[in-house]
Design a protein that fits this description.
alpha/beta, Rossmann fold, 2 domains, binds adenosine-5'-triphosphate, binds magnesium ion
C-alpha cells in the first residue's frame, strides 16, 4: 500500500534529533581554520584524525600557537563532525547502546562484568607477578578478532608492551585453540614496545591514525605503571608522576571513546605495610589510576596451579563479585564443574 508507506516516511522524518546535522570533515585539514601550518602542528602533537581532535581540550592545543578562541572553534568543529554535541538524554541512551562487549575467555568473568569488557571505557587488571595480567592481554588480542556472535568485535588489537613480555607463541597457541588462522591473527595485532614512560606516552599520543587504519578495537597497555614506578622515585616526584599518569589515562580514554574501542591496562600491586588486616596489597598509581579506570579487576593465584581468582573491585554500576577461572596452554578458560567442586572443598 503505497499511501501508507508515504505516511510512514513522513512520520519518520518528523522524528527530529536535537543534534544538528554532522558536517563532513574527513581529514583535519578539512576543518575550517586549519591551514597547512596549523595542521602540521596538530599532527606533531599527535592529532592526525578528526576523531582524536574531537576529544582534545583547548589547553592541550596550546602548543599549536593559535588563540584560545580558535582552538575552541577547531575542537567544536571536530566534535560536530563526529557527532559529539549537546544531545538529548534519549540519544545518550542510544550512544550507550553502541557500547560493545568483548569476551574475556571466561564466561564466569564475562557474566560478572555484565557480558564482557566494555568499549569506550578502561578496564584495569591488577595483581601480583604471575597472577595472569599479561595472559589476559594476550587472550584479549585474540578474542577481539572473533566475530560478534562468538563474543569478539571483529577488529584488531594495539599492544603497548612496556616489560617485553609479549610472546607471539602464546598468541599462536590461543588462536589455534579458538580455530582461528594464527597467521591472520598475528597480522591484526599492532605491537609497540615502550622503552620509557615518555616513550609510552608518545606512542599513545600518536596512535590515532593507526587505530583508524587498522580497525583497532582494543588498546592494551601492559604494564601501565612499570616505567612510571621505576623512573619517578621518592615523594618529591610523586606529584609529577601522578600528573603524567593522569594525562596518559586521559589520552587512553579519549581514544577508546573516539573509536568505540576497549581499553585495557595492567598494574602491579605493592604491599601496604601499615595494613594489618585483610589483603595488604594495593594497586600502584593511587587514586589517579583508580578513578580513571572504569572497571578494576584484581587477579590472584588461588594456590599452585592454573586456577586464578578474579575479583571485580570497582565498577560504575555493578556490584563487587568474585569468580574463579584458569590460565592454561589454551589461554583463559572457565574451570570445569569438577574443578569447581574440588576447589570449594579445598577452601
Ligand atoms: N603456555 C602456558 N601454559 C599454561 N600456563 C601458562 C602458560 N604461559 C603462562 N602461563 C601461566 O601464566 C603465568 C604468568 O602470568 P602473567 O605473565 O600473565 O603474569 P603477570 O600477572 O603479567 O605478571 P607480571 O606482574 O610479572 O607481569 C605463569 O606463571 C603460568 O602460570
Ligand atoms: Mg605481565
Amino acid at each position: 500500500m503505497p499511501e501508507d508507506e508515504s505516511i510512514n516516511v513522513e512520520a519518520e522524518e518528523k522524528e527530529e534529533s536535537a543534534a544538528p546535522k554532522k558536517p563532513k570533515y574527513e581529514f583535519i585539514e578539512d576543518i575550517p581554520g586549519v591551514g597547512p601550518a596549523t595542521s602540521q602542528k596538530l599532527r606533531e602533537l599527535g592529532y592526525h584524525t578528526v576523531e582524536s581532535l574531537a576529544m582534545a581540550t583547548s589547553r592541550e592545543l596550546e602548543p599549536v600557537g593559535v588563540s584560545e578562541k580558535k582552538s575552541f572553534q577547531i575542537i567544536n568543529a571536530a566534535r560536530s563532525a563526529v557527532g559529539i554535541n549537546f544531545i538529548r538524554a534519549d540519544e545518550l541512551y542510544n550512544m550507550r547502546k553502541d557500547v560493545l562487549r568483548l569476551t574475556s575467555g571466561s564466561k564466569a568473568l564475562d557474566k560478572m562484568i555484565n557480558g564482557g569488557l566494555e568499549s569506550q571505557t578502561i578496564t584495569e587488571f591488577y595483581g601480583e607477578y604471575g597472577s595472569g595480567k599479561s595472559q589476559f592481554c594476550h587472550q584479549l588480542c585474540v578474542n577481539v578478532q572473533l566475530p560478534p556472535e562468538r563474543g569478539g568485535l571483529g577488529g584488531g588489537a594495539l599492544y603497548v608492551d612496556t616489560e617485553n613480555t609479549f610472546r607471539l607463541e602464546r598468541i599462536i597457541q590461543m588462536a589455534t585453540h579458538l580455530g582461528l588462522d594464527p597467521e591472520q591473527v598475528v597480522k591484526n595485532i599492532i605491537y609497540a614496545e615502550a622503552f620509557t614512560s615518555d616513550h609510552q606516552m608518545f606512542l599513545l599520543e600518536n596512535a590515532d591514525e593507526i587505530i583508524k587504519a587498522n580497525n583497532i578495537k582494543i588498546i592494551i597497555i601492559d604494564s601501565l605503571t612499570a616505567h612510571f614506578r621505576s623512573e619517578y622515585i621518592g615523594r618529591e616526584m610523586l606529584a609529577s608522576r601522578q600528573q603524567k599518569l593522569n594525562k596518559h589515562m586521559h589520552k587512553l580514554i579519549s581514544l577508546a571513546r573516539a573509536f568505540n574501542a576497549v581499553a585495557v591496562v595492567t598494574n602491579q600491586v605493592m604491599a601496604k605495610p601499615d595494613q594489618f588486616f585483610g589483603d595488604a596489597t594495593h594497586p600502584i598509581g593511587g587514586h589517579i589510576v583508580g578513578h580513571t579506570s572504569n572497571t578494576r579487576i584484581y587477579l590472584r593465584r588461588s594456590s599452585r596451579g592454573p586456577v586464578r581468582i578474579a575479583r571485580l573491585v570497582s565498577s560504575p554500576y555493578l556490584p563487587e563479585g568474585e569468580e574463579i577461572l584458569k590460565v592454561t596452554e589454551n589461554g583463559i578458560e572457565d574451570i570445569t564443574e569438577e574443578e569447581k567442586a574440588a576447589k570449594t572443598r579445598g577452601r
